[in-house]
Amino acid sequence: MLPFLIIGTTFIIRKIKTRRKKKMRQRFFKQNRGQLLQQLVCQSGNIAERMIVVTLEELEKATNNFDRTRELGGGAHGPVYKGILSSLHVVAIKKSKIVVQREIDEFINEVAILSQINHRNIVKLHGCCLETEVPLLVYEFVSNGTLYDHLHVDGPISLPWKDRLRIAVEAARALAYLHSLVSMPIIHRDVKSPNILLDSNLTVKLSDFGASRYIPIDQTGVDTTVQGTFGYLDPMYYSTGHLTDRSDVYSFGVILIELLTRKKPVSYRSPEGDGLVNHFSNSVPEGKLVRILDPQVLKEGGGEVVDISLLAAMCVKFVSKDRPTMRQVELTLESIHAAKENASSDDMTDESEESYVGANGLSVGGESGVDAATSHD
Prior knowledge:
Elements: H1 2-31, H2 34-43, H3 45-50, E1 52-53, H4 56-62, E2 71-75, E3 78-84, E4 90-95, H5 101-114, E5 125-129, E6 136-140, H6 147-151, H7 161-180, E7 186-187, E8 196-198, E9 204-206, E10 213-214, E11 221-223, H8 235-240, E12 242-244, H9 245-261, H10 276-283, H11 289-292, H12 295-300, H13 304-315, H14 326-345, H15 350-360, H16 367-374
Parallel strand pairs: 1-5
Antiparallel strand pairs: 2-3, 3-4, 4-6, 5-6, 7-10, 8-9, 11-12
Helix pairs in contact: 7-9, 7-14, 9-13, 13-14
C-alpha cells in the first residue's frame, strides 16, 4: 500500500509542478507581448517564414544552461551568448538582465522591426523565446566583433583605409534602406561603432534596434524621450526631443569622423577641451585637418580622404535640415568608393596617382591641400 501511495503522491506533485510551469510560461508570454508577435505573423507571411519561436529548453541546451564561458560580451541591456541550435545554426542569444517594462518594450520593439526587414548589412533575427521572465532574442552569429573593436586596438596600425571606406559605404546602405526603402521609415536612434558588427569578411551587420522608432510616412519626425549614446547623439534631438532621420545622419557623421581619426567619440577631448565633433569640424575650415587625421589614413588614403572629411562635416551640422539625407550620403560614399576602386584596379603609377588627386583638387599632404578643398565650401 505504501509504495502505491508514494508513487501516487509523486505523480500528483509532478503534475502540479508541470501545471505551474505552464501557467508561468503563459504569464511570461503575455507579459512579453507574445500577442503582438502573433499579430505580426498573421499580418505578414514574410515574418512567418523568417521568424521561429524557440523554446527555453532549446536555448538552454544550445548554451549549456547559459554557461558563462559561452558569453560573447554584453552591454547595458545584458549578456549575449553564443549557441548552437539543434538545426546546427550558430547563433547569438541576447538576454536582458533587468526585469523592467522598458527593457521588455525595447526587446519587443526589436522583434517587431527586425522581423520585417531583410538587408545583407543588417543583422538577421532568427527567432525569439517569450516564455521566460525576460524575452530572449536569437540572432545570426556575427563572428568578427565590432567596428569599435577593430578601430581602437593598441598600436599605430588599425583597419586598412580601404576597409574603413567600404565599411562606411555598407553602413550607409543599411541606414538608407531603413530610412527610404521600407514600408514605414525606421530611425535607428543609436548608431555607433559598437553597434556595427563585422563578419569574417569584415562585412557590416548593423545591430541593436531596441531603441529604434517608426516614423509615419506623412510625418517628418516624432517627439520622444531622448535616447542614444553621448558622443554620437544628435545635439538638436537632445535639446528638443524631436527625432528625425537626420538624427541618424548626425550619428553616422560621427562614425565617419571616427574612421578618419581613430579617436573615441565618447571620451575624446582636444587640448582646448573640445569634443571630437567640434574639434574635427573646426579643423576643416581652418586647414588643420591633417593634425587630427589618423596617420595611417594619411599614409594609405588619397584625395578621397578630404572628400569624406567634407561629407562628415556636413553630416554633423548642428541644424538638422542643413545635413544631407542618408540616401545622399550613401550615393556620395558609393561614388567616392567607386573612384577609389577604379584607381586601384588601374594599378596607377605614382605619377598617375598624383594626377588623380590633382583632378579632384584635393590633397592630404599638407594644410594647403585642405585649404584648397574647403575654400569653395
